[in-house]
Amino acid sequence: MLARRDLLRSLDQARRDSERDIFVRDYTVHQRRAFSLLGSRQTQIAFDLRREPEFVRAKYGPGINATSMLLARRLVEAGVPYVTVFWKGDPEV
Fold this sequence. Notes:
The protein contains five helices and no strands. With 93 residues, the chain is mainly alpha-helical. Helix 1 crosses helix 2 (29-39).
């Protein structure tokens, strides 16, 4: 969870920097496109699971696999054409 927050902070800072034209000039076209996609408002909304009603989140259940499936659904709803979910093995019971 901490790593995701750090990534979000980094993306927010990079977006603010780009808005002030502190863009590194040697980015490739693909890097710029990826940065633009990750920094877009639509992407931020899709990744913000707090926007999902609590009762829906509860239906998916706790854990990384449930969260991954919920996020995959949100990305598809946001128009992402291909989504891959890596299933992490369930802990031993």
